[in-house]
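Hi R.,

Here's the chain you asked about this morning:
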Amino acid sequence: MNKRPHKKCLVEFQMAEQPLRVGEVAIVGAGPGDPGLLTLRALMLIQQADAIVYDRLVSPEIMELVNPKAELIHVGKASGCHYVPQEETNELLVQLAVRQRRVVRLKGGDPYIFGRGGEEAEFLVENDIDFQVVPGITSAAGCASYCGIPLTHRDYAQSVTFVTGHRKADHSLELNWQVLAAPNQTRVFYMGLHNAPTIVRELTAHGLSRRCPVALVERGTTPQQHMAVTTLAELEATIIREGFQPPTLIIVGEVVKLAESLAQPAPGERASFPARHPALSSGGRPA
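And here is the predicted structure, written out as tokens:
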């Protein structure tokens, strides 16, 4: 007879953790959109929060999981059009904490990867507000995986670089293009639609072939996922023809050629893949 004491399973253990303290802020990554990619700790915190400050990249499916009694405050941002200025968001987090609320700052992807989570954490420290950070699956990893693109591969890409395609206050996009154009790597541009002409011009000017494969992924991991494969030479035309809108990732590199054979269906939808591009060899694998 088995007399060993019952051990809590991992989910029971996670959900039984101490709740957020009043006056504390949790900066939480919600992942790229599919609620199945939410971490256990993120789920625990959004179900305990008194106030949730969220942005537009948090999917409706994830918002359905939050504490139904929580105060919901939308501070979503769109490229070139901020719903709430970042400075006001910072102040809001402090005010909610001072009012002894249990606060979750819920952000799409990972809060410390192009999510301005670092700026918010600095402001909380300056104002003596206790906080914690919960990482999330960043959009690059989630969207690429769902589209059949391994960001690294021993044969084609020995490194991956995450790059912001948008600068603060519309500053010019000044990057180390020589390094980005080097072979055997994958480049993922966040928020890069507006600066697609610059990305094409600078990468090709620094030696990257105009035939280099490129993937565009809009709202990846969600039922609204929209993906197309093209080349650097045809990137701008593809964006216009396919009507891509933010949030869209631009993935540049030879690993994109694997997409056709490795892509999985987006949640709730059948698998789909654009017509084979001339840059792809038969079967979608690199020639």
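One quick note: The mean pLDDT is 87.

Cheers,
M.
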